[in-house]
User: What shape does this take?
Amino acid sequence: MTAPLKQSAPITVEVALGERAYDIIIGRDVLGSLGRRIAALRPGARTAIVTDHTVAKHWLAPTEAVLAEAGITTSRIVVGEGEASKTYGVLQDVCEGLIAAKIERNDLVVALGGGVVGDLAGFAASIVRRGLDFVQVPTSLLAQVDSSVGGKTGINSPQGKNLVGMFHQPVLVVADTAVLDTLSPRQFRAGYAEVAKYGLLGDAGFFAWLEANHAEIVAGGSAREHAIATSCRAKAAIVARDERETGERALLNLGHTFGHALEAATGFSDRLFHGEGVSIGMVLAAQLSAELGLIGAADVIRIEQHLATVGLPIHLQDIAGFRQEGLADADALMALMAQDKKVKRGRLTFILLQAIGQAVIRSDVEPVVVRDFLARKLG
Assistant: This one.
C-alpha cells in the first residue's frame, strides 16, 4: 500500500445499510461542521450531549458552541470516565437525564466521547421512548476506528463485557482527528491496537503500511487520517454485509475473546484498557493459530514485534499486578471466556489467523486445547 496523498477536504465513508445508511465524516477540525450537519439532517431537532468528565473539560463547550451557532438547543449529561460507567446504574442515570431534558423521537442524542460513552449513550438512545436517533462524535482513536461504527451499544455485566445491549445504528459519525491530540500516549496506543486489527484480519498491505508509518500516525496529519479512513472502510464493508454478526462480522472480534476475559479479570479498570486487552488477545490468537498449524512462526513474530514497537502489551505478564491478583489461573480465564457473546451451544468461537491479512472463524477448537495453551502462556 502506498502512502496516502495529503488530505485537504474531509473524507466521507458510507455505511451502506439501505434506509439506515449513514456517513462517517473524517478529518481535522470537522467538529466545527457538526452543527450544520445536524441541522441539515434533522431540521428543528434539539440535542442532548452525553459525555464524560475528562472529555467535557476539552470538548463539551466547543461542541455546544458549534451547535448553538446552527440554532440547535442542547442539554448535557456528564458521566464518570472509563468502563466503570458501563453499568445498570449509570445507564439509568443517562436514561432519566434524557427524559428530564424532554428529548423526543424527532430529537437527537449526541455521544461525545470514547467507546464507553458511545456504547452507553447509544444503548440509552435505543431504549428511551422506545428508540431515539443518535450521533456519534468519537473522541478516542479506538472509538473513531471501531466502536462508533456499526451500531453495537451496551453495558457490562459483572459476569462479562458488553453482555447487555442492542444493535442501534447512529445516523451520523463525525470523527475529528484533531481531538486525538488531547489523548495520553497510552490511550492513543490502546486505540492503535484496533487499527492494527484491520490489517491483520483482512488487509496484509495495510498492515505492512502500518509497520512503515506508525510514527506518522501518532504525529498526526494525513497518515493518521488515512489509517482511520482505511479502518472505517474495512469495518463499514463488513457491517453492511453482516449487520447483526450472524457470520462474517465475527471477524472483527479478532483478539477480543481473550481480551474481554482479561478485562473482566482486571475488574474493567484502568489497569487494562480495552485496546491493551485486544493487543494481548491478538497475540494469543496468533500464537494459538500457530500451535494449530494455521499460521507460520515468522508471521507471529512479526505481529508481536509490531505491537511491541508501538508500545502495546503483548504478554499476559505485562498486565499490572498480574500474579498478585490471581490472573495466572487458566481455569478462571476459561470461565470468563465461557461468557463471551460468541459462545454457541456452549462452544467458544475463536477468530484465528491463517496469515497476516487472513482471519478465519473457528468453532471447532476443543476447550482442553485452549486451557492447556493458556496454562503454558501463564507459566
User: Anything to note?
Assistant: The chain has a mean pLDDT of 93.
